Amino acid sequence: xxxxxxxxxxxxxxxxxxxxxxxxxxxxxxxxxxxxxxxxxxxxxxxxxxxxxxxxxxxxxxxxxxxxxxxxxxxxxxxxxxxxxxxxxxxxxxxxxxxxxxxxxxxxxxxxxxxxxxxxxxxxxxxxxxxxxxxxxxxxxxxxxxxxxxxxxxxxxxxxxxxxxxxxxxxxxxxxxxxxxxxxxxxxxxxxxxxxxxxxxxxxxxxxxxxxxxxxxxxxxxxxxxxxxxxxxxxxxxxxxxxxxxxxxxxxxxxxxxxxxxxxxxxxxxxxxxxxxxxxxxxxx
Length: 285
Fold this sequence. Notes:
By secondary structure, this protein is mostly helical. It has one domain (about 1-285). The chain contains 13 helices and no strands. Helix 2 runs antiparallel to helix 11 and helix 6 (about 85-105) crosses helix 7. The longest helix is centred in the last third of the chain and has 33 residues, at about 250-285.
């Protein structure tokens, strides 16, 4: 009975296995790890966000669509700038909001508290598995202010798991998905583990849900929007149009900072849109 449900997540299962293989090939090369991590995030995240263009187009009529697109881009550009100006505050806000978004997108029929609990486990499990690397990653954005406590992380994960199991919705499926997630984090690394979840589960699930908003001949637009987003990262890395916070110490950190900020600035209007999409569609604007 459960087998057909877990097989719906074949992209995630295959990508998780692939991440564990890559870790065996490049376990001694941190530069390659960062490159693979950021590439997987971009492959999963940019088309995921670019799809919003077609969701907006499907919801709104022409004039309202153009206005909605301007608002969407304004929110994205504003948060991109705010990430550079107030990285600690904006990143913390982004992390908390992302936890709810993961649950809302992965299990839309769950209660809000169950959604937040699911997303909290997705965020906290890698932090617990490898605290040293997790602190290094978080402090790229938090100016070396964060020191993780394993007891707090265990409590959050345990409480979140109880909330998810208490709802009794997809309980066994969630346990199996978490098992794959934990296994990937343990036998590859936490960055590969999260990248596999984000690109193989979260983004694929989102694309399948909203695929009806685009036609096959519109896929070129999806590709162009993705390329444009990559170009923004390349220009910032090459010319430092916006100055980096002075606590960044090298190219590896700058690459991660740029990729996460790009995805974060697109994620904020994306999460607002997805949370409101159905109600806006019913208004027939």
